Amino acid sequence: MRSACLPRVGRCVRCFASTQRNRIRYALLDVDGVCILGGVEIPGSSQALARLRSSVRACRFITNQSQEPCSMVQAKLRSAGFHVGDGEIFSALRAARHFVRQRQLRPLCLLSTAALEEFHDVPQREPNAVVVGTAPEQMHYERLTEAMRVLLANEDSHLIAVNKGRYFQRSDGLALQAGGFVAALEYATGKTATVVGKPDWEFFHSAVEDASGATGPAVELPLGEFVMIGDDVIDDVQGAMNAGMKAILVKTGKYRTGDEFRCSTPPLAVVDSLADAVHFLHDVGLLE
């Protein structure tokens, strides 16, 4: 049954769907595990990006990275050999800042020192909300207890998850992401976290608006012209498909054997790397 849904062709697993009728004009790329790993380019990725750029109108690097501000993500990609323009990084950390400012919240931030740069102009005294990212130095008993007390002190308090990922790929292996700590606070307080990063469909739609320039309530988003390329089957691939766009799963980064079968519907393709993803899109005529 699985092989019928996902016939294996060459080095990639492919599934042709009706969404293929639209050519790809925009690309969303995950950063860690797709373009770079441990700050180093995944072989062939920068050349693949250059080829992809020549075939699409715009690219965006979208990331659930919650330990570094956009400026650091951009600098890391550039140092690894990628051309990344100003404004091309679309991060969950910045989405969390937007959520907080829009609602005039005063967050207790369980964030790394570097990530706090994104919140430098956000009032944080007498907090009525908690923002959780991946911050190893913050995730100890007393700090989590402080966060729990903030959430229990006010019925209208907000628990905001920059992401709810289970783990991410480091150079030395898998490491805990923010999701486990968010789940602990949910359990302790009875609150449900608002997830502002992937796989939230609003996050994807905001990235689509940013890349395509299609904004306003009456404007139809060109979702069929977008492809998301990622290594996380839930946050990247399933999230993008739920938002209405195409998605390709790459076997670099956090991918584990059989991940593709965790999707409720098959991705457009499962390939070895970003370079193979770009080759695939050209081979099947989805890129000009």
From TrEMBL:
One of its GO terms (molecular function) is pyrophosphatase activity. The keyword Ligase does not apply. It is found in: Cytoplasm; Nucleus. Its main location: cytoplasm. The keyword Ion transport does not apply. Its cofactor is Mg(2+). Keywords: Cytoplasm, Hydrolase, Magnesium, Metal-binding, Nucleus. One of its GO terms (cellular component) is nucleus. Pfam families: Hydrolase_6, Hydrolase_like. InterPro entries: HAD-like_sf, HAD-SF_hydro_IIA, HAD_sf, LHPP/HDHD2. PANTHER family: 4-NITROPHENYLPHOSPHATASE-RELATED (PTHR19288), HALOACID DEHALOGENASE-LIKE HYDROLASE DOMAIN-CONTAINING PROTEIN 2 (PTHR19288:SF46). Phosphatase that hydrolyzes imidodiphosphate, 3-phosphohistidine and 6-phospholysine. Has broad substrate specificity and can also hydrolyze inorganic diphosphate, but with lower efficiency. Belongs to the HAD-like hydrolase superfamily. This is Haloacid dehalogenase-like hydrolase domain-containing protein 2. It comes from Symbiodinium natans.
